[in-house]
Design brief:
Elements: H1 10-16, E1 27-33, E2 39-45, E3 52-55, H2 66-72, E4 76-79, H3 97-111, E5 117-121, H4 123-134, E6 141-145, H5 157-163, E7 168-169, H6 172-181, H7 188-198, E8 199-201, E9 207-209, H8 219-230, H9 232-237, E10 242-248, H10 256-265, E11 270-274, H11 281-284, H12 286-298
Parallel strand pairs: 3-4, 3-5, 5-6, 6-10, 10-11
Antiparallel strand pairs: 1-2, 2-4, 7-9, 8-9
Helix pairs in contact: 2-12, 3-4, 6-7
Length: 299
């Protein structure tokens, strides 16, 4: 069995991105019990009052933000969304933004009531929009990473083709090979770390993803889900929160028409493009994203 210690790899992040960090910040695994007895898990970074709460995308986990948080040098909370990482799966398999936003609200109230910024990527970004619509008191300033309610099956095909692939693999090498094939913008070392955080080895030596596969419904259900996601345009139109969209420069998920619609719905939205980044901006260009988030946080 391959040994896994989720706190043992930060040195690799620091080395790969040449971060000027002399002493590692404190990082701990925390959890809270939700009203229906599910467990919501998260990583707590630093000893101070958390300034940012990070919400990852579908089929990811809290560790996707490791390099960004290290580069920013802040106190923060990075949650494992329900059905992902160390958080409980939902019995109904419903992981839509409006549902997830309720749990994110609980996370903020429990761990980061004074957070100045909520950052969400992909599904986490749509969840952050839903949260800001429901609870503007908890999300007065939001950053949405490479997603809009204009997402559709064509724009997200490259991501869903990877995510909807096999659940189990005979070996770690097989899992790594497939991951490399579908993530050409990432270094092999970062993908290796990502797999260790996002998959687990079974007793027979095979590997399987940690996330709940019911997050990826049938084509018919997907169409209905996309229709419901498109309703978030109305939420954006009525948002009181400050909003920034961070777009991956080479990502197909957000197109110019989406940006135009976003600006029409919310004229004061800020839009940033991170050159060279695909959909997973935090994985492809974490230092550039960290710089952008620092500017937004301090503005």
């Amino acid at each position: 069995m391959m040994h896994y210690d989720e706190f043992s790899m930060f040195g690799e992040n620091i080395s790969e991105y040449r971060l000027n960090i002399v002493k590692l910040p404190s990082v701990s695994r925390i959890a809270t019990q939700l009203a229906d007895d599910r467990i919501l898990s998260a990583l707590k970074w630093g000893d101070g009052e958390p300034e940012i709460l990070f919400v990852h995308g579908s089929a990811q986990n809290a560790h996707t933000w490791d390099t960004v948080i290290l580069a920013m040098g802040i106190s923060a909370i990075a949650i494992d969304m329900p059905g992902h990482g160390h958080s409980s799966w939902r019995k109904d398999g419903n992981y839509e933004p409006g549902i997830l936003a309720r749990d994110v609200a609980t996370a903020i109230e429990t761990w980061a009531p004074k957070a100045k910024l909520i950052v969400g990527m992909s599904l986490g970004g749509l969840t952050t929009v839903a949260l800001a619509g429901m609870r503007p008191d908890l999300a007065s300033k939001i950053v949405v990473v490479d997603i809009t309610p204009g997402v559709n099956s064509e724009k997200s095909k490259a991501i869903t083709d990877f995510v909807n692939g096999p659940q189990t693999f005979a070996s770690f090498e097989d899992l790594l090979k497939r991951t490399i094939e579908h993530n050409s913008t990432r270094s092999e070392s970062s993908l290796r770390r990502g797999i260790l955080h996002n998959a687990k080895q079974l007793d027979d030596g095979s590997w399987q993803w940690r996330y709940d596969r019911s997050t990826h419904p049938s084509k018919e259900d997907s169409a209905k889900r996309l229709d419901r996601i498109s309703e978030l345009w109305t939420v954006i139109e009525n948002l009181k929160s400050e909003m920034t969209l961070v777009r991956g420069g080479i990502s197909p998920v957000v197109d110019d028409a989406d940006v135009a619609e976003l600006k029409r719905r919310k004229p004061d939205v800020q839009v940033l493009v991170i050159d060279g980044a695909g959909h997973s901006v935090q994985g492809d260009r974490p230092i550039e994203l960290a710089s952008a988030l620092t500017r937004i946080l301090r503005s």
